[in-house]
Amino acid sequence: MSDSSRATSTPLSGDQSLGSLVNSAVTDLRRLIQMEKELAVAEVAQAGKRLAPAIAGFVVAAVSGAFIVLMGSIALAFGVADLFSIGLGWSFLIVAGLWLLLAAVGGLVGLRAVKKIKPPERTIRTVKDTADWARHPTNTVAAALEVR
Predict the structure, then answer these.
(1) How far apart are CA 120 and CA 101, in angstroms?
(2) Residue 9's pLDDT is what?
(3) Contact, 99 vs 69, CB < 8 A?
(4) Cα–Cα dist 27/43, whole Å
(5) pLDDT value of position 1
(6) Rounded CA gap, 107 and 114, in Å?
């Protein structure tokens, strides 16, 4: 957080005008919005770091799949045809089925990693709290005082 977004409270005297009170409230609201924004950016960056292994898994699966399918499939298909004495068409079909299975496993691994990523929960909670306060500031203050 930057120094300008840190909330500073000063005791208010009873002699302040309505304009200065409104100005203070607007300033505090701006600070609050800035702090919410910084929190959201930090949580999204943290989620992005957790997304890196999933992206790396997809990239490795794609690059490996492209090279292996291109070069290894031809050699494997000829080997299967010679080993089992079947036609080249059937051996290429068997090899394609194996690569389909590998692609499915790689996709499931990446999907599992993506599902582990959670939304920025603290930001959502604080934004909801701020919105509730903005709708009913007296109810929220009264509820907070009752809890204490």
Answers:
(1) 35
(2) 53
(3) yes
(4) 24
(5) 45
(6) 11
